[in-house]
Design a protein that fits this description.
alpha+beta, 100 residues, 5 strands
C-alpha cells in the first residue's frame, strides 16, 4: 500500500509459482517487490460475487483484492473461497459487502 493506504501491489502464490516455473529461484534472495504484481486488478466493495467470478475467470487470476471507495484494501477474494460455493449459491449473486 502507498502512504495513503491505497493498494499498489500484491504478492500472490501465483507470483511465486511463476518464479519457480521460470526457474528464477535466484529472485528469492531479492526483495519481494521484484516479483509482486503491480497495480493489481481490484473490485470495489459491494460488487456482485458473480461479477467477481467472471473477472477472475476472464483475467485468469486466482486472487482479487476488494477495495473501498478510496482504493484501500478491505478484503481479498481467493479462488479457494469460491470452491465451497455451489452453483445454486452463486446464482443468488451475493455481493462482496462482507468481504472484510
Amino acid at each position: 500500500v502507498d502512504e495513503d493506504g491505497r493498494l499498489v501491489a500484491l504478492l500472490t502464490d501465483s507470483d511465486l509459482a511463476r518464479v519457480f516455473e521460470q526457474r528464477r529461484e535466484g529472485l528469492l534472495d531479492e526483495p519481494f517487490a521484484w516479483v509482486m504484481t503491480r497495480q493489481p486488478i481490484t473490485l470495489p466493495l459491494g460488487t456482485r460475487l458473480l461479477e467477481a467470478v467472471d473477472v477472475m475467470r476472464t483475467r485468469k487470476i486466482s486472487e482479487l483484492p476488494i477495495v473501498d471507495s478510496q482504493g484501500r484494501p478491505v478484503g481479498l477474494l481467493d479462488i479457494t473461497d469460491l470452491i465451497a460455493l455451489a452453483p445454486a449459491e452463486l446464482g443468488e449473486t451475493p455481493s462482496l459487502a462482507h468481504a472484510a
